Amino acid sequence: MNAVALKRFVEENQKLAAECANLLAQCNKWKRECSLYNHDREALMDFGNEADERAKEAEIRVHELGEELGKLTEELRFYKHRCESQGIDSSSEGTTLEENLLESVLATLICKDEFMSGRAFLEENNSLESCQRLLKMWKK
Fold it and tell me: CA-CA distance, 99 to 6, in Å (whole number)?
């Protein structure tokens, strides 16, 4: 080989070495990018899994609340029907449902030893403002 060919060979070899170093730097850069991408993908997958889990828990809670609402609605219908039927029975006796409820509330406040109607209790304790208001409501 002559000197010119050797010089070209060395120059070509240097160019290839520089290109190899460039490619190696790009490869390292892409490895870091891929690592970041994989980390982000894993974080998103975890977030998605947690969101799915919370959504399932929310669906279960909605179902439970729906069942509870149904039970409470049924209980409300039962008591409404019971109140309506008591209202019909009590009106035939000349007493309203409110008077019956007031009578029962007052009966629980009075000692069992004493027997006194709710109206008599209110009239006896007329000095108390709350008794005066209840008495006015009763008279309506």
Answer: 120
CB-based contact 100:86 (threshold 8 Å): yes
Is the overall model pTM greater than 0.85, yes or no?
A: no
Query: From residue 96, how far is each of 17, 67, 69, 89, 121 by CA, in Å?
Result: 105, 34, 30, 9, 18
Say how far apart CA 119 and CA 124 lie, in whole Å: 9
| Rounded Cα distance, 21 and 135, in Å | 100
| Cα–Cα dist 91/106, whole Å | 20
Contact 90, 97 (CB under 8 A): yes
pLDDT tens for residues 68-127? 888 888 888 888 888 787 755 444 444 565 666 666 666 655 554 554 566 777 777 788
